[in-house]
Amino acid sequence: MIMESRDKRWLALAVVCMGQLMMILDATIVAVALPAIKTDLHFSSSSLTWVMNAYLIAFGSFLLLGGRLGDLIGRTRMFLTGIAIFTGASMLCGLASSEAMLIGARFVQGLGAAAAASAILAQRVRAMSAYTFVSVAGGSIGLIAGGLLTQGLTWHWIFFINAPLGVLAFLAGRATLESDRGLGLGHHVDVLGSFLITGAAMIGIYAIVGSEQYGLGSARTLGLAGVAAAMLTAFLAVERRVPSPILPLEIMRLRSLMIACGVRALMVCGMWASFFVGALYLERVLGMGPVAAGAAFLPQTLTVAAFSLGPTARLTARFGERRMLLFGLTVLVAGLGLFSAVLQPGAAYFPGLFAAYALIGVGAGTSFMTLVTLALADVPAADAGIASGLVNVSVQISAALGLAVLGTIAAGQTGRLSDRGETAVHALSGGYQLAFVVAAGCVAVALLMAALFIQGPNARGAHDAEGDGSGVPAHVRAEVEPA
């Protein structure tokens, strides 16, 4: 994606950020529509997570392969192809009349998102804080948009709305992104590795979702988990042997990168409780409509926006990446913990739930950008692309795993409380409450990992972060600016 002028570079940046926003929005826009989808297409409580997980698994699993294909056929062509697939699959989602059709279309949608996003990741972005805002706040914006569309029209329109957006992104991309030829398909593509890692993720999550019905220690659950582990082991073996692996194992020897990915994965597991479980609680327990449920996330959305677009960068430049990360994770644990404490049938939105969402927003707004900076700080320039891809893969796969685990925990606890004679509303509330406790625990473990294993850049922060006041080290910033 080579731009002819400075103005065209910024136009191209706007296009890829619009594409990024589409991908992130669609990961969460369905959350407030889930009760309507469940009723209309007759999903079970545990299988409902697949409406979101099919998208997340395909998205995360194919990001690395998409990046490699972009190198071979050209990043602009990969971006436009991804947008076209994503838009077409969105129409199929909107037309879905059965559980299987919706899940299948969501999987294809995720493939298109991965193809487009892999090209977006290769585009170097000058305004890291603005790009982070698109990535983080987009999830909350999706909840509001989903509520408006579901209540004002039907849940089908949360997918139909992608048609005009996709067409606009495609046409704008063709107009502003210069065609690049790529290396050619004669170079190696790690198809086997992509198949193995995708299969391992899908089978592993399928085992988790099914454990609520069949039991965690059942032969079915353990057998599926064993198959997933075997496929993951085979993937690692393949990556050692193929000439062009989608995940060069050398990159996994970078301690700071791997720890940051682990912290981010646990953090995302907790964050998705506020999207998936929180939306179900607001609608099914408190009885809010989709619009009211979407609007309930405004404190989270606005605080993420406020911190992502400037203050986090200035605070990071003053206090350092490590302190800001620990602060953000601490606030996020507090927000999720407060949500679990006030989550009761008939709970008032203000002040408890309002404060919980605001704290979650502050925690996310001060953590995500800082964690990306720390993850890439020690990565050589030649490996920055694959490292950024790995960071984003960890987000998508951990979100899918977190949804599967939290959804299964909530459904299991709800079933146990129902068997003990609790009313339906109290049983649902108890299940969601336990899910938030586990979510807070995941982020607490992330906080402990960060405190023990992530070291601040010491001298690097003050003299490397020159010029733009972003707090981003110069050698990292060089990898996120337009070429």
Report on the structure:
The protein is an all-alpha fold and 483 residues long. Mean pLDDT is 78; it is low at 458-483. The radius of gyration is 21 Å and the shape is globular. It folds into 2 domains: 6-190 and 242-480, Growth Hormone, Chain: A, CATH 1.20.1250; 191-241. The relative contact order is 0.14. Helix content is 77%, strand content 0%.
Task: Put the structure in a nutshell.
The chain folds into 2 domains: 6-190 and 242-480, Growth Hormone, Chain: A (Up-down Bundle), CATH 1.20.1250.20; 191-241.
The low-confidence parts are 458-483
The radius of gyration over CA amounts to 21 Å
| CATH class type of the largest domain | Mainly Alpha
Number of domains: 2
How many helices in DSSP terms?
A: 20
How many extended strands? 0
Helical proportion, percent range:
over 70%
In CATH, the architecture of the largest domain is: Up-down Bundle
- Largest pleated sheet: none
How would you name the CATH homologous superfamily of the largest domain? MFS general substrate transporter like domains
Shape: globular
* Overall pLDDT level: 78
Termini separation? 9 Å
The helix/strand order is HHHHHHHHHHHHHHHHHHHH
Find the structural class using helix and strand composition. Answer: mainly alpha
CATH topology call of the largest domain: Growth Hormone, Chain: A
